[in-house]
Amino acid sequence: MAAVAVHQFAQCITCHAWSPDQSMVAFCPNNNEVHIYKLLEDKWEKVHVLQKHDQIVTGIDWSGRSNRIVTVSHDRNSYVWNQEGAEWVPTLVILRLNRAALCVQWSPRENKFAVGSGAKTVCICYYEQENNWWVSKLIRKKHDSSVTSVAWHPNNILLATTSTDGKCRVFSTFIKGVDTRESKTSSSSDSKFGEQIVQLDLSFSWAFGVKWSPSGNTLAYVGHNSMIYFVDDVGPSPLAQNVAFRNLPLRDVLFVSEKMVIGVGFDCNPMVFAADDSGIWSFIRFLGERKASSSSSKYGSQFSEAFGKLYGQSKHGLSNDTVEPSRAHGVVHENCINCIVPLRKEGPRTKRFSTSGLDGKVVIWDLENQEVVSDYL
What we know:
single chain; mainly beta; Methylamine Dehydrogenase, Chain H; 4-stranded antiparallel sheet; 30 strands; globular; actin filament binding; WD40/YVTN_repeat-like_dom_sf; WD40_rpt
């Protein structure tokens, strides 16, 4: 089994992020707070509670260079938190949204961050030194529904988004005075802020998590129709593949190398996808896979699992005859995994990552000793 550490922090976790040295983890326990835990003498202890939002916190990202935390919430606000002594001091970011903020991510150079929202809008936020505040520029009228995920290209300029309109889009976020022309690539050399580079219409259902490969040559995103999409040569003539699987849909993805992707979602167990030497992607296996009980069929177990999740079998006060999920594949998480975050990296490869979900657990996974997947790292 690839899971090396399991921590039950809450009854439900909305999202999580790690400090630069990975000694602290910040997460939202499905409310308007952000809890920060620190590992002290082999025991996790709560050291901070960030209280500023009025509604559920939907996105957290902890910058690796500047040690700043950015949070977004259903209250339509965003805060950048700076550590001053023993306290975390918030700075309000004016997003100018009329719907909930749903996701957030720092750019690779950490001079900008992107916020996706239910207002069909993406906010690109940056710091104005002259006025000593964070401001936002909006990418409007490009999405037909809520923006569910954002992902920065390694060049710090291109931004990929997914939306519940079923589409994945790539935009230029070049901001004069913030970005330099040297950081532009040929595909965005003449693009202005908010210009759409490409629109991918591969999914006919909601689209969720999206990520770039370490080199930025490949884009992967997932749909609510139990499919994952891989796109090479993002631009006017992209090369696209899709992989369909018989299990429950994914919610997020992570490239651990150029040839391997980890997908997480409603099946409660990370799924491994990899590309062969000819560049064809396919499903490889579940991490920590175990065999299902011989007394239940494949379709029966999937139905009972989905039915149990739909009606919240983990809630208190339900009778003993409530349908319980069989979890034929799950070994650690007991409910939907909604967040995956990279940990230790070796160059462009990620050997360890963490997941969190609706069961309130944060799980650290290690790929180093996985013989089945080691060839793709």
